[in-house]
Amino acid sequence: MTIEVRVPQLPESVADATLVSWHKQPGESVARDENLVDLETDKVVLEVPAPAAGVIAEIKLKDGTTVTSGQVLALIEESAAIPGASAPGVMSAAAAPASEAAVKLSPAAKRVAEENNLDPKSLVGSGRDGRVSKSDVVNYLASKDGAAAAPAPAPKPAATVSAAPPAASSMSAAAAPTPVAARGARTDQRVPMTRLRARIAERMVQAQATQALLTSFNEVDLQAINELRARYKDSFEKQHGVKLGFMSFFTKACVEALKRFPTVNASVEGNDIVYHEYYDVGVAVSTDRGLIVPILRDADRLSFAEIEKSIGNFAARARAGTITMEELAGGTFTITNGGVFGSLLSTPIVNSPQSAILGMHKVQDRPVVVGGAVVVRPMMYVALTYDHRIIDGREAVQFLVTVKQCLEDPARMVLGV
After folding, report:
1. Model's pTM, two decimal places?
2. Catalytic residue among 33, 234, 392, 409
């Protein structure tokens, strides 16, 4: 019986997807629910599982093809699935020599391998079932470059050396022109943007073109937060199974500030201002494919432990490519943390159609004046970029001051003052 493999129903906001890579080829056996192909949308990579066990009879579309919901991708011959046996005339993956076995590459790994003209068979995967990740490819390139840079053994001197002319013998070796090949080739590589990267570029340009963006800054003394974390980190982790980080404190502080300044939680639709009476806070997560923003729904109702668990779960699944479209949709306010990469100060861009975004930065010990004395404290610059069409400078500054007060005196978040 022949079974069609079709593109799954895409979310309403996604018109099409790009076929990234096939994990199976015609003639290969496949188990039910085994991933056959990766589809890339504007936000996530979707896996298409096999609807039944069998043998791939035909692949209808090639890598790089744009597909829509319901489109036929491949055909599976269900009757050809015989346990322990290969399809007629086809060598099974288990029986094939190691050099001919199919290599499983993640979409990011495949892209890097193609950019550097690498043979997938030369790569060794560290992931599940031998899957090759981007880091595996990068490590392979680094080791390859290191081997290429190793100096070659010096040639043995010839038995007879002919006498050189006096002028030649006086010439300095440094004066001799360097061969062009020794200086390295000056090459360019043209690589198309991934759908996610193209979508990020589109949204960033759209935000700057349609919103009156302005950024205000402040700095926060994190001494109190550090003392709380040091005091309760062991008991917190033991009770909740997750570490107590900075993000839960910042999320709670932002929610308190959003309650006091609802315009910062609003958005513009045409000539209307939409005031959201809920607090869906997006947390920017960096992945190999680009920046995505999973949403903490009803963040005002979440405990510190629930926020930390959700953010950790989002980050792990975002980097594994298993996060869902629903988890990325919506949001009324965003927090981004450039400090994890060492950024000391930046002006983040609003995640349209939202009206504001808070940028966290690197925690750095700096001398500050406290009670008339100069002391060293763990300080962080915070930045609020906002749409000046609906948010006045007074509101933006007071929002940041509220965040600062909540973080420097965390009891405020408990007492609501």
Report:
1. 0.64
2. 392
